[in-house]
Every structure is written in C-alpha cells, then in structure tokens.
Amino acid sequence: MSRLFFLILLIANLIVLILYLLGLTPWNHDEREPARLKQQLNSERIRVLTEEEQAAQTAVDKNSSKNSGSIQCLQVGTFNKQSTVAFENRLARLELTDLPKKLMVSEEGTFMVFLPPLKKGQAATQKRMDELRKFGFADLHFIQDQSARRGGISLGVFRKLELAQLQLEHAHRIGTADARIENYTMTVTRTAYQLRGLPTKAKPQLEAMLTEFAGTEISECQP
Fold first, then answer.
1. Which of 94, 120, 122, 145 has the most beta carbons within 10 angstroms of its beta carbon?
2. b/e map of 83-103 (b: 16 or more CB within 10 Å)?
3. pLDDT tens series, the chain, 223 aa
C-alpha cells in the first residue's frame, strides 16, 4: 500500500514539474521572459553606452562629487620652522577626514635675512638669539661660512625676495635695526602639507588662514 502511495506521489510531482516547465501553472505565468519584457517601461530607450560615453559620464560623476563633497587632495606650503608650528596649531580648525601628511621639501634659497656679527663675542650673540626667539623667531642659526657675515645670526634663507623682505620688516618692528638682506644661494629644507578629505565648503577657510603665512601656496597633490 505504501509503495502504491509513493508511486502516485512521484507521478503527481512529475506532472507538476512538466506543467511548470511548459509555463502552464498559474503561479509562474508572470515570471515567463515574454511577460517580463512586456512590463519594462520605455524599453526602447535602453541602450549600451560606448566607451567614450562611459568615460564622459565618469568625468561628470567625479566633478559632481568634487563640487558637492570633499576635495581629494591639496598640497599647502611651504613653511619654515616658526610658521610650521603656527600652521599646525590652526589645522585643528579644519574638518579633515584624514590626518594631514607632512612633507619635507628642498628648495633653493637665494636671499638671507641676517644680523651682522657682534664685537662682544659669542656669548652676547647667544643672548641676542634668545631674545629673538621670544619674538617668534625660531629659524635662527649662527653664520659659520667664510664671509663677512661669519659670527652673525641668520634669521632665515628665502627663495623669494618678497618673503625675505617680510622677515626683514618683522625684525625691524622689534627693534633690530641692523638686520639686512643679502643674496645667498643654498638649499634649504622647508615643510609642506598634503590635506586629504577637505570639505569643499572649508577651502575658503583654508585660503583665509594662509593669508597669515606669506608666500604659501595651494596646489593639487602630485600623483
């Protein structure tokens, strides 16, 4: 009896399977391919994009993302020792998604701002350097080359004359009237920063911040 019941059940399942494959069952009628095609809206407007059209669409998407989201990467610089500290203190005001990347950049300096050597000796020179640091001069060095400047104090070597003049004006404002500028060619190491994930709306804030640091520039990061 059980064998007969099993045989009937098997035959019933086979019949149902055949009807399903032929699309004659009520539950799969709408799932047949012709029915799905009929349900497509504006199917005549669907087409495959060419490679040129795909590239153009990708560029549009990237530009839209840039305008509405964040800037991928900006490089800001360069800074000397004293301005590096001040700029890092201000970076916290920007809403960056990634930590800033600090870069050491070699530049050819062509102008030196310096104080001539004092006749009172090295102790007096060291005392003067300590006083200058209190006014924010951090990039100070004893001059040790074989020139008339030897024994003096370097207040910085600059690539651009206008930057050297700003440093000279700063020195004059604090009373160091003997500060001067001379041509001086050497390689100096300065600092730049790569800022990633800067919100587009924060770029004007960054530009305003950099007005406090003469000679700094904003550019796109190099690949």
1. 94
2. bbeebeeeeeebeeeeebeee
3. 666 666 677 677 777 667 656 655 555 544 445 555 455 544 454 455 566 766 666 565 455 445 446 678 889 888 887 788 888 888 877 777 778 888 898 887 789 999 999 888 888 889 999 999 888 787 788 898 888 888 999 998 888 888 889 889 989 999 999 999 999 888 878 889 898 878 888 888 888 888 877 778 888 887 6
DSSP secondary structure letters along 5-56: HHHHHHHHHHHHHHHHHTT-SGGGGGGSHHHHHHH-SSGGG--PPPHHHHHH
Q: How many domains does the chain have?
A: 2
Work out the widest C-alpha separation in the chain, in whole angstroms. Answer: 125
Please say whether the beta carbons of 143 and 150 come within 8 A: yes
Polymer length of the chain: 223
80 and 132 assigned to the same domain: yes
Residue 80, token pair as written in the block: 């000397």
184 assigned to some structural domain? yes
pTM, rounded to two decimals:
0.49
28 and 123 share one domain: no
Asked if residues 73 and 221 have their Cβ atoms less than 8 Å apart, the reply is: yes
Q: Is residue 67 part of a domain?
A: no
Compute CA distances 87 → 2, 144, 149, whole Å.
88, 30, 31
